[in-house]
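Example record

One chain of 293 residues, shown exactly as stored in the release files.
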Amino acid sequence: MEIKQTAFAGSWYPGTAGACETAILKYLTEGQGRLTGDFAGGIVPHAGWHFSGSIACRVIASLLPGDTIATADNIAADAVDTILLFGAHMHRQSEPFIMTQGLIETPFGNIEVDGELVDKICAGISIRKRSPKKFPDENTLELQYPFIKYFFPRAKIVVCGVAPSTFAGIIGSMAVDEAAKLGRHVRVIGSTDMTHYGPDFGFTPAGVGKKAVEWVAENDQSAIAVMKEMDTAGVIAQQDHRNMCCPGAVVATLAACKKKGAVKGIELDYATSFERSGQESFVGYAGLVYAIS
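Predicted structure tokens for this chain:
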């Protein structure tokens, strides 16, 4: 099978299984740890693990069935057949794309693309098909692969880039419908960072320093509010606030989670890279999960 090779291993996240596991076990002790409950999916950030890996890790771990932590050494995660992963930095006019088949490389081993489910999704909508070797190197997606392989070692994956439009919701909803027809039990993950603030991003409405950090937290909370409410139209409207870099991924995830029966979002954690770097240019990160009941 054709393999999508890593582009960010060893730089944005550790390049070996041992180093990845050490980081993961540390992340699971931070903040609230993972949440337990019946969750359809979640929203994760995608900066380097040093900055946002803890939040992403704990969101993805929270999607495990029940209250058991699963690794490659047990079968607790086998109730999940496929992970639906949405991401990519895209404009409203961008064409959505999907990996058609093959394997995705991670330090923990390869993840198999659920080619049968991808075929069903592509049969119903217009979406660009890309093989692993022609698939873009997207940190929004790759930064999640090791977490997915670690917590869901035998699950397959569907990886899709979605633009910030109402069509994103159609993609998310259809993916869940087609999965159900195939008898797949899925979890949904959407990848986005929040406000990109500072001189490096050409965005300094509150100047610099403490006031800027407070302004970013408030700006991000307006986006988190609509994500918690599962308001897809509200997510699209938030683009004017520049507080989500991948709103299309969020819309697809919300629609997919709604289709699975999710009724509310729960904020797991929030942070910014300022806490780590202290620099004038920094980024916000949020983690949410979507509860079915």
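Notes: The chain has ten helices and twelve strands.
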